[in-house]
Write a structure and sequence with these properties.
heterodimer, A: about 70 residues, alpha+beta, Alpha-Beta Plaits, two-stranded antiparallel sheet, two-stranded antiparallel ribbon, 3 helices, 4 strands, globular, B: about 250 residues, alpha/beta, Rossmann fold, 11 helices
Chain lengths: ~70, ~250
């Protein structure tokens, strides 16, 4: 199974990921990161790991990793 | 089946662009192409002056901040001295087209074996959103507060079409970052430009229509819509000069 990982401290809340997410899996935290933005959060249940957030993010917040166990199963 | 996605190590640092600026997406695509072509230890970036300069703050690679507009000339020197090194200029429209039009055109005219990436956001972003040669007719900027008067200041400038039509260049294309589909297309253009250089085919230019939410006074999503609605009709996307091997295929 793939995992989606976020570097929340880089998020500038531009909402390009939010606008393009096909599963409505992205929301914004009520807390602020160090830069003062309500950073993006992903609902892992809704997320289909399509990578569109990675494609549209200008700030390198998102990464999708395939865990070693899943790689071995392929 | 999901694919692994990871920001290339070359640029895996926080960058200081405004929220929603297109530079971050383009820089990531360039770094992805560099990794895929195994050039990460074989590159030098001559960088323009302006927001494009901020590339230097996040990238772990050899780079030189060139005098304003002169990146194409600096790239020419670098390439001629180290012909096996991949040379990529990274400039804005104000740098490459207003200030450095002579250097940009002359490098294209000579078909120098370099790759030029120009981020066109239709203004001078870093200095406060002044009008540039790529500003659209009637576009309001800080130096054209009533809208650009094309009768007095000229019409917006289409560089890739100009060099593709007039000069013997290897590859000329224009892409944008408004949607996942367009981002993926743009990556193909950048990769073709770099491959053209690595194969010694000559000059390649990839212009990118990129949003400037701060100076356009729009939120990032609306700025992307503005590109779709207003910029693309004037600056069409696509390949204007394809590589010879692709033409034959």
């Amino acid at each position: 199974m793939e995992s989606i990982n976020l570097k929340s401290e880089r998020c500038k809340q531009c909402e390009l990921c939010f606008a393009h997410c096909p599963s409505d899996a992205i929301s914004f935290s009520n807390e602020l990161n160090k830069a003062g933005f309500n950073f993006a959060c992903v609902d892992e249940e809704k997320c289909i790991r399509c990578g569109i957030c990675y494609t549209m993010c200008p700030d390198g917040v998102y990464a999708i990793a395939i865990n070693p166990q899943a790689k071995g199963e392929q | 089946m999901a694919k692994e996605r990871k920001v290339p190590a070359l640029i895996d640092n926080p960058m200081s662009f405004c929220a929603g600026c297109g530079h971050g997406i383009v820089i990531r695509l360039v770094a992805e192409c560099i990794e895929e072509l195994n050039q990460q230890d074989n590159i030098i970036f001559p960088i323009g002056v302006g927001c494009s300069s901020l590339l230097g703050g996040g990238m772990v690679a050899d780079r030189l901040h060139c005098p304003h507009g002169r990146a194409a000339s600096v790239a020419t020197g670098m390439k001629r001295v180290t012909p096996d090194t991949t040379i990529i200029t990274y400039q804005g429209d104000g740098d490459a087209y207003n200030i450095g039009i002579s250097e940009s055109l002359n490098a294209a005219y000579r078909n120098e074996n370099i790759t030029v990436i120009t981020i066109n956001n239709t203004n001078f972003g870093m200095t406060g959103g002044q009008m540039s040669w790529t500003s659209l007719p009637d576009q309001k900027t800080t130096t054209s507060p009533k809208g650009r008067d094309s009768g007095a200041t000229g019409l917006p400038f289409r560089f890739p079409e100009m060099v593709a039509g007039q000069f013997d260049v290897a590859y000329a294309a224009r892409g944008t970052v408004t949607s996942p589909k367009n981002v993926n297309k743009l990556k193909k253009y950048i990769k073709n430009g770099l491959e053209a250089q690595i194969n010694g085919e000559g000059y390649s230019i990839i212009e990118v229509l990129s949003p400037c939410p701060t100076n356009w006074g729009l939120n990032p999503v609306k700025a992307m819509e503005q590109i779709e609605e207003q910029l693309i009709p004037y600056y069409p996307l696509g390949v204007f000069k394809n590589r010879k091997e692709k033409q034959d295929a």
